[in-house]
Design brief:
The chain is α+β, with helices and mostly antiparallel strands. It is 11% helix and 20% strand. It has a single domain (23-116), classed as Phenol hydroxylase (Ubiquitin-like (UB roll), Roll), CATH 3.10.20.560. The longest helix is centred in the middle third of the chain and has 13 residues, at 50-62.
Length: 119
């Protein structure tokens, strides 16, 4: 159901990249691991390498899940904003084409969540 304002409604979004002091939001989704019910919203520097983001930010974020220790970076199937994606581990986030509010999906074949139930 759409909503229509009864007056001329304008607003300035608060989550513009200019408001993050050189950082950017990165959403990370791990399908079949719904212990995390929604993508993580992570604050990253566009100058960080993909490997740094993986090791310093994503790995700690997923650490509470029992299957997190079984995730092998070289086996992850990545999607960036819905498109198949192969990251360059040594390249920066910006050089990998990952910008403010990008959605990074990390599928982990063989890992189906706790008790293979997608949780």
């Amino acid at each position: 159901m759409s909503v229509r304002a009864t007056y001329d409604y304008h607003y300035e979004p608060k989550d513009k990249v200019e408001n993050f002091n050189g950082m950017q939001l990165l959403y990370v989704y791990w399908p079949k691991h719904l212990m995390f019910c929604a993508p993580f919203a992570l604050l990253v520097s566009p100058q960080m390498s993909f490997a740094e983001v993986w090791q310093d930010i994503i790995v700690p974020a997923i650490d509470l899940h029992p299957e997190s220790k079984e995730v092998a970076l070289d086996k992850v199937e990545w999607r960036l904003n819905g498109e198949a994606f192969t990251p360059s581990l040594s390249a920066s986030m910006a050089d990998n084409g990952i910008d403010h509010k990008s959605l990074l999906t990390m599928a982990t074949p063989g890992l189906e969540g706790m008790a293979n139930a997608g949780y």
